[in-house]
Amino acid sequence: MDPAPQSVEHSLVMQRIGLRYGRGPEVLSGVDLALPPGSFTFLTGQSGAGKSTLLKLAYLALKPSRGLIGLFGRDVAVMNNAELQVLRRRIGVVLQDFRLIDHLSVFENVALPLRVAGRERSSYVTDVTELLQWVGLGHRMNALPPTLSGGEKQRCAIARAVISKPDLLIADEPTGNVDPVIGERLLRLFAEMNRMGATVLIATHDLALIEEFPARTLHLENGKIRERR
Question: For residue 131, is it within any domain?
């Protein structure tokens, strides 16, 4: 029997993770990953290498075909749905397809995690407004997602992911739809979240961005992870 994930001192641990879709070959094969609390990590790799798949495992949108996952010192395999829901609330996620709710305004989309947590509107109006101004959406707070550009949707999704100050922040190509100036501002936002204690994992193919914000960098290739020098 495999041992439980040794994740007490880590925000995220993956041990010998393998994942395949149906009867196809493994997309991930024997992946080992450990993210200490408060760490900042980039994940690189070619398109199709499995970066998005790995992130989905990290925020519990997928289950591995084999191997063990630990989050915040807990083995997720032995947790019930209610416990997993509580755990997910500690994770902020930025996806490539944004997942904004079209009938809610930009303000309401960003505030949604706080509403779900039971906070009154009066307690978060200032926080949401200031964050939207920081990401350059102060003038679009009342706009609906279908009227936004791709870059505006990206910034809205990032603001929603960080507004609740998650313990683990996971982002999939978070600067892929914005210009370099906005991209740098967004990375500074991630860095500030990290400074406040969040563990940050960012998948990106933008090597120039990594050079601007030097941090631990992992490379995913042929289903396996290695440290990038």
Answer: yes
Query: Is pLDDT above 50 for 6?
Result: no
DSSP of the chain, one letter per residue?
-PPPP--TT-SEEEEEEEEESTTS-EEEEEEEEEE-TT-EEEEE--TTSSHHHHHHHHTTSS--SEEEEEETTEEGGG--HHHHHHHHTTEEEE-TT----TTS-HHHHHHHHHHHTT--HHHHHHHHHHHHHHTT-GGGTT--GGGS-HHHHHHHHHHHHHTT--SEEEEESTTTTS-HHHHHHHHHHHHHHHHTT-EEEEE---HHHHHHS--EEEEEETTEEEE--
pLDDT of residue 53 exceeding 80, the answer is yes
Q: Is residue 146 part of a domain?
A: yes
More confident residue, 10 or 9: 10
Q: Which distant-in-sequence residues (6+ apart) come within 8 Å of 77 by Cβ?
A: 68, 69
Residue type, 92: G
130 in a domain, yes or no?
Answer: yes
Say if 121 falls within a structural domain: yes
- Which domain covers residue 146, as residue numbers? 100-165
pLDDT (tens digit per residue) in 167-210 = 999 999 998 888 888 888 888 899 999 999 999 999 998 887 78
pLDDT average, residue stretch 6-33:
85
